[in-house]
Amino acid sequence: MSYNNFPRQFTLLITSLKRLLLGVSGLSGIALLGWLDYLSGHELGFSLFYLAPISFVTWHAGRYYGLAMAVISATVWLIADLHSGHVYSHPAILIWNTFIRAGFFVIVTLLLSALRRALRAEQALARTDYLTGAANKRFFFELAEKERLRSQRSKHPLSLAYIDLDNFKWVNDNLGHGAGDNVLKSVAHCLQQNLRQTDTVTRLGGDEFALLLPETDATAAQQIASKLQKQLLEQMSKQQWPVTFSIGVVSFRELPPSIELMIKSTDELMYAVKLSGKNNIRVEISPPTPA
Predict the structure, then answer these.
(1) 0.70 cut: is pTM over it?
(2) Is the peptide bond before 91 cis (omega within 30 degrees of 0)?
């Protein structure tokens, strides 16, 4: 198992276990309702209450788990009704009632699932840069603050990188804004393809990108930045875009009291690279290692 794939596989395992526990919780609720349905007899209806475990599982575990709960709920109701002594004038009535309840449960599940997907899509749009698909500045600040606090507790390093596109204005002025947009999209895609899932690629605005690199010390950050610069330059060369990259990276051994201070030091380092000739990488440790 490669290091880069481990976080993704671990996340998938946790997600599967979470859904399994949600499914067990839903089944427990349905079983309890079926038992109450049986004890109360056929004169009292509990169909509406089955929506509670169905909705809970659908919202937190997804549509397919919710549909399974819907079918199981209708089946449990059928079993409870059969054992309650309810006598129908025709056997088809029981089958009809079961299908009606199952259909009702399924419709609620599908509607709730669609609502959940719409909300998630809206949240994703609010956190994503519309042009590049990278995280936007607002979401970056949210994630960076969480990582800052987590690293502060764990005493693990956290690195932050700022990337500025040299000669980007020339592309816009001479090749057009469409070409400029393509440059930005190409850069974002290249960064996302060459980083770990635990890392975050952000477009801060204009031609500046930021990378949030958790659990990354200065040595690893230098390797990552060098690899990214090489990949980016190759991509620019293929498209014949005269764009290079000034990269400033600060690896924090001790976290400052705010994310703004982290950003300020990284931004200043990146501009120092630009002033010293552009198309280079500079990595610093904060606070500096004692001599």
Answers:
(1) no
(2) no
